[in-house]
Structures are given as C-alpha cells and as structure tokens.
Amino acid sequence: MTDIQNYMSRVGKQARLASRAMSSAQSSAKNAALEAIATALEANEPALLAANAKDMQAGRDSGLDAALLDRLELSPAGIAAMAEGLRQIIALPDPVGEISDMAYRPSGIQIGKMRVSLGVVGIIYESRPNVTADAAALCLKSGNAAILRGGKEAIHSNRAIAECIHAGLEKAGLPADAVQVIDTTDREAVGLMIAMPEYVDVIIPRGGKGLIERISAGARVPVIKHLDGICHVYIDDEADLEKATQIAFNAKTHRYGVCNAMETLLVAEGIAEQVLPELCAMYVEKGVEIRGCATTQKVVAGVVAATEQDWATEYLAPIISIRVVKDMAEAIEHIGQFSSGHTESIITENYTKSRRFLREVDSSSVMVNASTRFADGFEYGLGAEIGISTDKFHARGPVGLHGLTSQKYIVLGDGQIRQ
Asked: Which of 221, 285, 308, 353 makes a 20 to 30 Å CA pair with 205?
C-alpha cells in the first residue's frame, strides 16, 4: 500500500467507528457540539481570515477566475453567516429516531418507520470553505460521520475551520473523528474515497460539472448530485410587469457564479415588446451580455444571436440567453428539453396556469412569482444545505437534515407468531 492508501484507509476506519457513536448520540450532545463549533468560529475569526488570505493570494497567483475567487473568499460577514447557519440547525428538530406511519395489522403487530442516519457521508467540494462548516453541521445533527475533501485552493481555510469543528466536538464529548477534513491535496485521495463502500455510505460532490461527472463515473459508492444549474424564468402574457422585471433581474444578477442563477429567460410573445426593452436595458447597465432568439433581436437592438448551444449552457457568468415563445406550453416544452432539472419559475397572475406549470415542470424546485435564487437550503428553512440534488433518489432539491437520513421499518408485537 502507498502512503496515501494507508492514510485514506485509516480515515475510513476512523469514520466508520465514529459513525456508530454518532448514530446513537443524544440531541443535546449534538446541539452542544454545534453551539461550541459556532462559538469557536466566531472566536477564531482573525485566524480564519488569515488562513483564507493565504488561499486568496495563492488563487490570484495561480490565475483563478473571478467567479472562483468569489466562492473562495471568507469575510467577517461570511464567518458570522456560518455560525448563524449552525445555530439554525440547532433549532431544527432532530430527525434521528423520528417514528411515522404507525399502523396495526390484522395479526396484531404494529408497523411503522423510524428515521435513521446514513452512516458515513463523504463530501467532495471546490472553493467554498463555508461548505466545510455547513456540511459538518448537517452531518453531525443527522447522526452521521463525515469525511470532507475540499479543493486544494481552500486548504488553509478548511484546516482552520476543521480546528474549530474538532474543538467543538471534544467540548461536547463526541468523537473528533466524526468530522475528518482530508489533509492532503493529492487527487488520488478522491479516487480512493469514492471507492471505499466498506467505509463510506454515500458521496456528495459539490462543484463544477467536470468534478461531478468524474465522481459519478468513478464512484463505487452511491452519489447524491446535480450536474448543471440551467435554470429558467418564464414570463407569461398574464404576468404583472413590475413583478416580472424585478424577478427576472434578480434571478440573473443577484450572483452569477451560483447554480440557482437564471441562465435562460423565456418570454411569452404577447408581452415581449412590453417587458424586454426595459429589462434588457437593466441587464446592459449591469454589464450582462444578452444572447437572444430572432424575435428578441427584433425587439431589442444589439442582442447577440443565441445558438442552440446557448440554451444548454450554464454560464455562471454575466451572460443570459433569452427566447420569446408562443405561450406557456412552448415554454414548458423548452424547459423539458434544455433544463438540468434544478429550478424553474413562472411569473403570472393566472392561477390556473401557475398550477399547470407546477404540475408539468419536472425540476427539483418549481416556483411561482419568485426568483430562482430562493432555491437554497438556508432560504427553505433547512438551516443550511449540503447541496442540491437533481436526482430523484434518494433525495431531491436542497439536501438538508432529512436528506441525510434514511428510514427503516420497525415492528411492535406482543408475542405474535406467523400463522
């Protein structure tokens, strides 16, 4: 065995042992650990910022683009948000041990379901160091052990956050190995991590499409994932124009390098001439490049012609593609062809249309009169999220506490035997 193989095997064994302790840990102990971690993050703000400054400088020196640097940067407000996220998770009900669907059978036995932890959760992510705290917190509260492998660009930040996590676990009397941050940038660690079903129960990759495709292709462990965030907003011909303009502007420009940013705007032809000139002027003023269909080009001067590839592209940049469609049916057809199944929104005052849109659009989040930027665990009240899943099994949409648990059947009897 190589050194890296020995290291990953040791991490896996430690995680498996820790997961057994975590699966039976009391809510009070888990909450105490989370509060201690939140306090440690706040108390160690200078050290966290100093570690992040090293990563930011290394990122600039290596030529990381603006979107990646944005994801990488930690600020005092970001550290406060991490601590707040942990405290929101403390306030959430502990899902482990929750019993539901109890029912008597003719034999006299009682059947139900109990929610249980998954075991060991492996999380592979890029750039964002706040994921280290969010992922650790969600795994801990849901009774799991976690193996966290951040990107090499955030190694100093992740090490500093890991120290706060371990301090919190020890203070609460929980095993420090319940959260292990891989302390190497060797890419072989990832290949080994996703091929250890004896130690790891599920892998959650967070990052670009290339990373997630590599993980999905090589994993011998179940993967919870989404590949793209090709999100749509459809402005219906019965939309409130003020709502439509503000929502479509926010969905694209609130942040560019995030998976829930709108990439394609669909507009009903009956309202295109009313809404597009003002909205496109707002985009241009913000520095957004507009690529549009032939009708969009007729309505708004200076629009670049959109290609077929544009409809299938997640830009993660100040670029938007706009298509004018005949009606909602054509919008739904376009979404069905090009959406990545992440998030779609309809802007309309027609109740019947909104109900049809909710029913027929098959994405993990479907919205009415709201920005796609709300597709987020924090905004959904999950405290924090470990990622977005566009799969249909085992979890879908923002993955919070319940997404990190499973269920087992329980049977209560009083001496019954099978006849």
From this structure: 308
